[in-house]
């Protein structure tokens, strides 16, 4: 498979390493305004975008307009997600966005939904989320923490949204900490006066995200439509 890497920073470099290990070729690396590059469908099977929040939408839509499927892991641009989906559908190509591509986190997501389903009937427990990342991370809270909050909100009829640091009673609070060299730690805590229950996912390196993104790219080539990591996992476990 021929891959274009959009965003050649910390993640882009690990994606290159993993993609080459899996026998793919990197035919284009973009690390600045995409307008300076030629996007040729004949040469690129899939693009993988791990760039910056301000660039992601332009990168993704430029690929769609050239009929190139996109795997996107960039966080902090989701106000334009519906627009991106529409362009993808209009152009008849394919798209996967995930706030977190690691296999372990996607298992953690399923655990989070299951736990919220059990805890929603126990009003004595309050719920909160904490995420810790390296100090260079541009957005807060992390896309993964937002996904965790949304999964809980779907289960709790009285929760209307989430907020960073301070939340009203009908919201979930997310705490975001920035500590040198931490690839990503997410904790969901349910607390009552009697006890507390915690589930934690701790990434040891960026390799898990990169592997998930390359596996998602393998899944996406020759497909049309909008997919999620759940579709990718189902295809692996069938
Ligand atoms: N979904 C996931 O699993 C996952 C995992 C890790 C990181 N991320 C996200 O991926 C993104 C990148 O993370 P990182 O740690 O590699 O950051 P990074 O800062 O190391 O890399 C970003 C790169 O994008 C480049 N860039 C700037 N403008 C660009 C443009 N217009 N087009 C293309 N590239 C451009 C920068 O020069 C930089 O090299 C962030 O949004 C981060 O939150 C997602």
UniProtKB/TrEMBL annotation:
Compartment list: Cytoplasm
**Active-site residues from the entry:** 133, 137
UniProt main location, coarse = cytoplasm
PROSITE patterns given in the database record: DAPB
One GO term (biological process): lysine biosynthetic process via diaminopimelate
Q: Where are the transmembrane segments?
A: none
- InterPro entries in the record: DapB_C (IPR022663), DapB_N (IPR000846), DapB_N_CS (IPR022664), DHDPR_bac (IPR023940), NAD(P)-bd_dom_sf (IPR036291)
What catalytic activity does the UniProt entry give for this protein?
A: (S)-2,3,4,5-tetrahydrodipicolinate + NADP(+) + H2O = (2S,4S)-4-hydroxy-2,3,4,5-tetrahydrodipicolinate + NADPH + H(+); (S)-2,3,4,5-tetrahydrodipicolinate + NAD(+) + H2O = (2S,4S)-4-hydroxy-2,3,4,5-tetrahydrodipicolinate + NADH + H(+)
Gene3D superfamilies with a match to the protein in the record: Dihydrodipicolinate Reductase, domain 2, NAD(P)-binding Rossmann-like Domain
One function term, GO molecular function aspect:
NADP binding
Amino-acid positions noted as binding NAD(+) in the UniProt annotation, renumbered to this chain: 40, 73-75, 98-101
Lineage top rank: taxon: Bacteria
Residues that, per the record, bind NADP(+): 41
Q: Which residues form the Dihydrodipicolinate reductase N-terminal domain?
A: 1-101
Residue ranges of domain Dihydrodipicolinate reductase C-terminal in the record: 104-233
Positions of (S)-2,3,4,5-tetrahydrodipicolinate binding: 134, 143-144
Q: Which UniProt keywords apply?
A: Amino-acid biosynthesis, Cytoplasm, Diaminopimelate biosynthesis, Lysine biosynthesis, NAD, NADP, Oxidoreductase
Please give the HAMAP family that the UniProt record associates with this protein.
DapB
Q: Which family does it belong to?
A: Belongs to the DapB family.
Q: What does this protein do?
A: Catalyzes the conversion of 4-hydroxy-tetrahydrodipicolinate (HTPA) to tetrahydrodipicolinate.
Q: Which NCBIfam families match?
A: dapB
Q: How does it assemble?
A: Homotetramer.
Tell me what this protein is called.
4-hydroxy-tetrahydrodipicolinate reductase
- The organism encoding this protein is Christiangramia fulva
Traced from the root, the source organism's taxonomic lineage reads: Bacteria, Pseudomonadati, Bacteroidota, Flavobacteriia, Flavobacteriales
């Amino acid at each position: 498979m021929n891959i274009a890497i959009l965003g050649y920073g910390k993640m882009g470099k690990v994606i290159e390493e993993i993609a080459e290990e899996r026998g793919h070729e990197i035919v284009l690396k973009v690390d600045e305004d995409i307008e300076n590059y030629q996007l040729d469908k004949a040469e690129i099977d899939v693009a993988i975008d791990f760039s910056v929040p301000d660039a992601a939408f332009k990168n993704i839509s430029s690929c769609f307009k050239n009929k190139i499927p996109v795997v996107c892991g960039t966080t902090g641009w989701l106000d334009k997600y519906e627009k991106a989906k529409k362009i993808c559908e209009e152009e008849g190509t394919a798209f996967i966005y995930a706030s977190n591509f690691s296999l372990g986190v996607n298992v953690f997501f399923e655990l989070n939904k299951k736990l919220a389903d059990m805890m929603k009937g126990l009003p004595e427990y309050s719920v909160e989320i904490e995420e810790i990342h390296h100090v260079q991370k541009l957005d807060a809270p992390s896309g993964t923490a937002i996904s965790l909050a949304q999964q809980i909100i779907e289960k709790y009829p009285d929760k209307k949204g989430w907020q960073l640091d301070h939340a009203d009673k009908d919201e979930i609070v997310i705490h975001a900490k920035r500590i040198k060299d931490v690839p990503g730690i997410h904790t969901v805590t349910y607390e009552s006066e009697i006890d507390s229950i915690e589930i934690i996912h701790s990434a040891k390196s960026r390799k898990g995200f990169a592997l998930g993104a390359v596996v998602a790219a393998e899944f996406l080539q020759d497909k049309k439509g909008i997919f999620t990591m759940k579709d990718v996992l189902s295809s692996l476990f069938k």
